[in-house]
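Hey,
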Amino acid sequence: MADNRIRVLLVDDHQVVRRGLRTFLEVQDDIEVVGEASDGAEGVARTEELRPDVVLMDVKMPVMDGVEALRKLRELANPARVLIVTSFTEQRTVVPALRAGAAGYVYKDVDPDALAGAIRSVHAGHVLLQPEVAGALLSQEDTNGGQGRGNSLTEREREVLGLIADGRSNREIARALVLSEKTVKTHVSNILMKLDLADRTQAALWAVRHGAAG
């Protein structure tokens, strides 16, 4: 049913790209394209207006690029999961977007079925990181005091953190630990607060760096 569909917003300055994405996504039974935007500033406004579940965001755009748009959405505490769709393969392009809060990224030449899978994955709470990009992110992380902050975590929070690092969604963590999803969300919020982290991506990276991953 339409009410159960993943609501998606397309943000890209090239109309032909948006049209291609819409054409494919509209044939997916569980995905609904709710709107489009042609630059980052419009993308932020439309995300606030339409409250999509997932935003497909280009990086290089006029007026406001994708990284700045991500930062604005974070400031607004918008819950939408952002999946970067880019034609740029350089880490210097992708890494800042992930540090700004993106849940992952795919390239514009991605197989259509893989794109749909990526949308479903980030909507479920997963973080999509390829090994080489994860390594680049780790190399840039400031570790001063990091391990000390980890001492404040409870045993249960450490278990949750390890599962986040394994790429598990809140639902999967709840099943693994026999907890409610609401309880898992509370644990995740506490972990981010105690470790002074902004999102699950940073939590997963922290866990890998400090040996808390499973």
